[in-house]
């Protein structure tokens, strides 16, 4: 009996201490508006369901936030989030809150302290070292690789020409994997001809489990997740992907040590890292390379596939792209150069409008490290901040009554001059924005230009979406293609 009494009083003392430590959070929650919450559960019920239902719930909740003035508090279990659709607040958050939110911990199991998920102190040091290897001049040296792999893609798509609709994303993502592997580690993987490899299956498996865990509350605590079969499956597949990258790094470091790598000419990103005056450990190299290959592939492949879907259902826009490409290339099928890409003004607007409508990273999560003064109040340290980019990019308050429609001319210079810098943030914003944004834009232009010079695209309007970390159409990226006349 005495033991139970002691346990009871210890629990009471812990709860009192817990409440006292979190007093600033409770105080700010009394100031912030709350929408759609339930007693005890808070907003947890909005984050239950399958990928399609979950995205629908998030959109509904965000609309409630929008109608309440564009800001609100969201409680998910014991975690408090500040959600804002106000570009001024978003700018302050992204410029001042550089620590990633706790939800990114599931990716850290795989990517460790790679640049995408690294703690702030480490991120600051490593970003400074990595930034020069993403200089525009270096990325432009890979343009032949972009064009060569896009040409392989066009050849493989011949098997679908004149046939019923098919999921083009599978082709695009294989092309992007070949591009990313060759630019990141100098390896010609030939994924386009061999898409079903053990390594790619392992990658896909890990992504699926992380996505499931991110949106299923009962799988989030490590103690519960480790009791499931998914923990063992995830660990085995992560180990498999790590082994692959470790072997590549080991081989490259041995070549570097023996002086076997090229002294002149184009170098892959791993070679450039080895040439930097910074002593990365093998583990750190693997974390950065894995982060580059994962982030560089999935996001750009999705934007390319969405752009084709949109152009396939908007013949007028597709015709304008093709006319622009004819003015640049004539009848030539040559690989796009830097000068060619710089002339693709309309195609660039199409890409930007695609990223606005189908922001593939729908939510950016950050955490306040210290007090953050916003317009009407101050957030205490320790509050999660959720920037709902997918909702902001479709906000009628920011983009007008036709915010849901496809209009590339929205990004004409004269239509963009007064736009808030945080109204459109497909590559995030501030010092922790996407380090590969120039790479992404150049590769998307190059691949899209190569496809559209060869094929006419037809598709249906996108009606149903789902969230699996990134944003996907429920039926897939379904298109039909026909060869263009020579």
Automatic annotation (TrEMBL):
<keyword id="KW-0472">Membrane</keyword>
<comment type="function">
    <text>May be involved in the metabolism of insect hormones and in the breakdown of synthetic insecticides.</text>
</comment>
<dbReference type="InterPro" id="IPR036396">
    <property type="entry name" value="Cyt_P450_sf"/>
</dbReference>
<comment type="similarity">
    <text>Belongs to the cytochrome P450 family.</text>
</comment>
<feature type="binding site" description="axial binding residue">
    <location>
        <position position="434"/>
    </location>
    <ligand>
        <name>heme</name>
    </ligand>
</feature>
<dbReference type="GO" id="GO:0004497">
    <property type="term" value="F:monooxygenase activity"/>
</dbReference>
<dbReference type="GO" id="GO:0005789">
    <property type="term" value="C:endoplasmic reticulum membrane"/>
</dbReference>
<keyword id="KW-0256">Endoplasmic reticulum</keyword>
<dbReference type="Pfam" id="PF00067">
    <property type="entry name" value="p450"/>
</dbReference>
<dbReference type="InterPro" id="IPR017972">
    <property type="entry name" value="Cyt_P450_CS"/>
</dbReference>
<protein>
    <recommendedName>
        <fullName>Cytochrome P450</fullName>
    </recommendedName>
</protein>
<dbReference type="GO" id="GO:0020037">
    <property type="term" value="F:heme binding"/>
</dbReference>
<keyword id="KW-0479">Metal-binding</keyword>
<dbReference type="InterPro" id="IPR001128">
    <property type="entry name" value="Cyt_P450"/>
</dbReference>
<keyword id="KW-0503">Monooxygenase</keyword>
<keyword id="KW-0492">Microsome</keyword>
<keyword id="KW-0349">Heme</keyword>
<keyword id="KW-0560">Oxidoreductase</keyword>
<dbReference type="InterPro" id="IPR050196">
    <property type="entry name" value="Cytochrome_P450_Monoox"/>
</dbReference>
<dbReference type="GO" id="GO:0005506">
    <property type="term" value="F:iron ion binding"/>
</dbReference>
<dbReference type="InterPro" id="IPR002401">
    <property type="entry name" value="Cyt_P450_E_grp-I"/>
</dbReference>
<keyword id="KW-0408">Iron</keyword>
<dbReference type="GO" id="GO:0016705">
    <property type="term" value="F:oxidoreductase activity, acting on paired donors, with incorporation or reduction of molecular oxygen"/>
</dbReference>
């Amino acid at each position: 009996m005495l033991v139970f009494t002691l346990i009871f009083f210890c629990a009471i003392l812990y709860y009192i201490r817990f409440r006292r430590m979190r007093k600033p959070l409770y105080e700010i929650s009394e100031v912030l508006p709350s929408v759609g919450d339930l007693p005890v559960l808070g907003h947890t019920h909005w984050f239950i369901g399958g990928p399609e239902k979950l995205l629908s719930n998030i959109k509904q909740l965000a609309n409630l936030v929008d109608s309440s003035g564009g800001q609100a508090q969201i409680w998910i279990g014991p975690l408090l989030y500040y959600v804002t659709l106000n570009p001024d607040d978003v700018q302050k958050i992204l410029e001042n809150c550089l620590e990633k939110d706790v939800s990114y911990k599931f990716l850290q199991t795989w990517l460790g302290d790679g640049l995408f998920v690294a703690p702030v102190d480490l991120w600051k040091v490593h970003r400074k070292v990595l930034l020069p290897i993403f200089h525009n001049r270096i990325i432009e040296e890979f343009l032949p690789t972009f064009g060569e792999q896009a040409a392989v893609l066009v050849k493989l798509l011949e098997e679908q020409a004149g046939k019923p609709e098919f999921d083009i994303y599978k082709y695009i993502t294989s092309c992007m994997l070949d591009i990313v592997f060759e630019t990141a580690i100098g390896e010609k993987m030939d994924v386009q001809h061999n898409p079903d490899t053990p390594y790619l299956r392992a990658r896909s498996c890990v992504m699926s489990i992380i996505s499931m865990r991110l949106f299923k509350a009962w799988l989030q605590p490590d103690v519960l997740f480790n009791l499931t079969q998914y923990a063992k499956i995830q660990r085995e597949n992560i180990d498999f992907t790590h082994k692959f990258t470790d072997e590549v790094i080991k081989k490259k470091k041995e070549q570097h040590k023996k002086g076997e790598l090229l002294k002149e000419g184009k170098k892959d990103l791993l070679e450039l890292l080895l040439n930097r005056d910074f002593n990365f450990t093998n583990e750190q190299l693997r974390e950065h390379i894995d982060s580059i290959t994962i982030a560089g592939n999935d996001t750009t492949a999705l934007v390319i596939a969405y752009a084709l879907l949109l152009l396939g259902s908007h013949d007028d826009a597709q015709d304008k792209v093709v006319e622009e490409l004819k003015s640049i290339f004539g009848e030539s099928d040559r690989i796009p150069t830097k000068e060619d890409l710089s002339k693709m003004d309309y195609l660039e607007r199409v890409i930007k409008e695609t990223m606005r409508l189908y922001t593939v990273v729908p939510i950016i999560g950050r955490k306040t490290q210290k007090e953050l003064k916003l317009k009407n109040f101050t957030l205490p340290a320790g509050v999660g901040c959720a920037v709902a980019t997918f909702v902001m990019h479709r906000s009628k308050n920011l983009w007008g009554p036709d915010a849901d429609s496809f209009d590339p001319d929205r990004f004409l210079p004269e239509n963009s001059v007064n736009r808030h810098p945080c109204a459109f943030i497909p590559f995030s914003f501030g010092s922790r924005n996407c380090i590969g944004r120039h790479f992404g834009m150049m590769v998307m232009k190059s691949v899209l230009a190569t496809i559209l010079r060869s094929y006419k695209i037809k598709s249906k309007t996108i009606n149903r979406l789902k969230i699996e970390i990134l944003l996907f159409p429920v039926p897939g990226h379904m298109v039909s293609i026909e060869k263009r006349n020579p």
